[in-house]
Amino acid sequence: MLAYQWYRDGKAISYATSARYKLVGADAGKKLTVKVTGSLSGYANTSKTSAATGVVAKGTLTAKVPTISGKVKVGSKITAKVSGWTSGTKFSYQWSVAGKAVKGATKSTFKLPASALGKKVTVKVT
């Protein structure tokens, strides 16, 4: 039987105990190793640790342009919809009218004020 334990800069990663390991954000800038322990009834256990990887580089987010949906009418709410982003991404929003950020308009929905009438409304999602 083989048992696996992955390490990040020499510290055990508690949940990483299988032959495969999927990188996470905490790995960026660190080196990884894996220790494999073999056991068989009647024999002494044997462990070997791999050489360290190179320093793990930061990943790249994949993203699509957000869409805005809803009834475009003063007093109505419109919604920024995001799709195709890297799983687990957290978003922040900033709505703008005529190129100027609207103070406090930092949610995925935005109630169109009278001042937006006839002007371009955009949202920046980061």
Automatic annotation (TrEMBL):
Q: Where does the source fall among the domains of life? A: Bacteria
Record-linked Gene3D superfamilies: 2.60.40.2700
Its name, as the record gives it, is CAZy families PL6|PL7 protein
The species is: uncultured Saccharophagus sp
What phylogenetic lineage does the species belong to?
Answer: Bacteria, Pseudomonadati, Pseudomonadota, Gammaproteobacteria, Cellvibrionales
